Amino acid sequence: MVDPALLNATAATCWTNLGWWETDVQDYAIAARALATRVGEAAPLRAGDVVVDVACGYGDSLAHWVTAFGVARVVGVEPDPAVSAAVRARIAAWGLADRITVVTATAETFDLAAHVPDATAIVCVDAAYHFQSRGAWLARIAESASSGTRIGFSDLAVRDAAVSPPATMPPRTDAASAAPRALRWGAARAGIPAANLWALDDIPDAMTAAGYAAVTVMECGGPILDGFRAHAQRAHGRWWRQPARGGWRALATAWLLGRVRPTLTMVCVGAQVR
Asked: How far apart are CA 65 and CA 71, in angstroms?
């Protein structure tokens, strides 16, 4: 884990995503908030929504859905009990305990029908590629959410369509071996299952097969991946001196992105449950 204090300039924010880096942005919190905004727009969130935020981290996105989009209620899903407790304390300090709650669960174990049967939107900022199976997660949402429920998430994607099967299908036996060696090596060390290396061209069909309609896919590797690498170069000296806070991990992430960038990109995906 990378300590949010290493990434964020002040204690007021605890973002931990890769960020959406506009040309003139150098402040990490601004970039991280911008990526959350893109995910919210992919959903698209609107006033009155009941939102489920899967893998919500330290909770900045939870408040963002309320303040930036005017949603009525948010349920965050966070697997780490210690992080969940920290998020609850932050929610209370924000005065938003009546609108935001947190459930300690993984993406795979969270029971949408039991916890949020009235959900109108589901979002996930920069985490789906770490799930045990993105395809299984998407299929489970489609099975348990009401028709018309919107979903928006940012995700990694592979440019070469021969690298991976659609996310809703079992991985081909040759999926891992078909991926470029640097990509396979980097994904394994970053905790990304081989089955989650879905191809950019496969995403619309994979989402449709999983039970979604009105699928939109926006490629955004430049403002996310290239932007984070540029930020890492600027922060190199400070991060290198703080290994205990995850500085070396952040630098390793940027380095790995450089190794696999010709093959790897980023997407913002939006859809509706059929």
From this structure: 6
Architecture of domain 4-273: 3-Layer(aba) Sandwich (3.40)
Q: What type of residue sits at position 223?
A: P
CA neighbor of 55 nearest in space, from 120, 2, 125: 125
Residue 166 has pLDDT above 90, yes or no: no
What is residue 96's predicted lDDT score, i.e. its pLDDT?
A: 98
Indicate if the pLDDT at residue 55 is higher than 80: yes
For residue 15, what are the CA distances in angstroms to 7, 8, 87, 119, 227? Answer: 8, 7, 12, 24, 16
Q: What is the pLDDT of residue 260?
A: 87
pLDDT at residue 244, as a whole number: 93
For the stretch 72-94, pLDDT in tens is 999 999 999 999 999 999 999 99
Q: Could you check whether the bond before residue 193 is cis, i.e. omega within 30 degrees of 0?
A: no
